[in-house]
Fold this sequence. Notes:
Blueprint: H1 5-12, E1 14-16, H2 18-25, H3 29-41, E2 45-50, E3 53-59, E4 69-70, H4 72-79, E5 91-92, H5 99-108, H6 112-118, H7 128-137, H8 141-152, H9 162-169, H10 188-194, H11 202-205
Helix pairs in contact: 2-3, 5-7, 8-10
Amino acid sequence: MKESINDVLKKLEGLNTIDMIQKKLKVSRKTAIKKVHELRKRGYVETSGGRQQPRIYRIARIKIKKIGYPGLYDIINDNSPVKLAKPYEHRIINKRLSIEEALARAVKTEDYRTILASLSLFNKIKNWSRLYQYAKQNKVRKKIGALYDVARATIRVKKMNEKTRDLLLTLKEKNKYIVKDLKSKDFKDIEKKWKIYIPFNKADLMRLKE
């Protein structure tokens, strides 16, 4: 007999890993992952960890009410084929995070996967002047320009206006690395033009086309 949602929640309430969920429900790993996805869609799960740390699922019997607006990782996951495991639950309290600000914040993280996933946001930009201002606030203006050319060489993106592009090209940048110590083998022309080291190669960007 199939267990009700309440029975499942009763067994899983609290902090769990996938292995723990598998044991508690006495199911295969594939079924455990599927069950977590189902519960998350219904609002009973919060996720933390990932990358170098175990992914932890906080499961509640009452739907978890998230305060504020979607944060950086939610916006990237909603707009990119490359999905991110949230290192923590990031929410914005007093405003909605625009695509322009999310892109600038993503580049500021200096995290390889976060920046790779964020390249898809270039096709969602509505205001280049606003992107410039957020890039200035986050001290990533030149990097935004270089990454735009990388994205444009790989996927469909909206055209940056010439005024913004020219302004970005004339800037000087002390830190030439987007991700520490990483350089590209395939985008040497873009690196030379922008005087910024690109952390990706063409093979890395194929994931943006999935």
